[in-house]
Amino acid sequence: MKNKVKKIYAPLMFSDCYQSFSEGRVSAGFPSPAADYEENKLDLNKYLVKHPVATFFVRVVGDSMLGAGISCGDLLIVDRSLEPRDKNVIIAVLDGELTVKRIRIRKGKLTLEPENDKYPVRQLGPDADFEVWGVVTSVIHQL
Prior knowledge:
Blueprint: E1 4-9, E2 18-22, E3 39-43, H1 44-48, E4 55-61, E5 75-79, E6 89-94, E7 97-106, E8 109-113, E9 122-124, E10 130-140
């Protein structure tokens, strides 16, 4: 199934979203027993949401963006104030539907590319019913 947006949520920026945060680095290899960890507080709203008025969370359905680390059920943080650049993952309105794809901008031509070989690249002509809805800045998913 190609990726589609299931739901759109606005962030609740009037509430603080503080979580414990360790300044120490976590090793993916062998941990250092001498690591010194200092605990602070991290506000996830301030960390993940740069432009609160223009930021939305969207829930994804489908598997066309697996290669970009986006799976069915993931929550995407989307900033509508950002100008899309080549290779950004975006939310696009394509033929009246919201979809998640990587935008490629080459020599004035636009393509929307999935990150799953099961799906075709979509070349956008001048008459395409297309609009960039927002730029994906983060992906939140369960392990």
